[in-house]
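Bench notes, afternoon.
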Amino acid sequence: MAGENSKKMTVPEHKLAKIHRGHENHLCELTAKRQMEKVGKLAKNAQYVCHICGRASAKAANLCEAVDL
C-alpha cells in the first residue's frame, strides 16, 4: 500500500488522432520501424512513460502521451 507521500498519477482519457504532430520521432513509431539503436538512446535515463503504449523516454517529446515517472 502506498504511503501518504506517494504521488497520485491520474491521466484523462486520451484523444489521440491516428496521425499527430511529431509522431515520426515517438518511440512507438521508431520501434515499429525497427530503429532500436535510436530507441535505446532516447529511452536512457527515462523520466516519462507513455500513457498509451507504456514505453519510457528521457524526453516527453518522444512519446504520444507522456506522463511523469
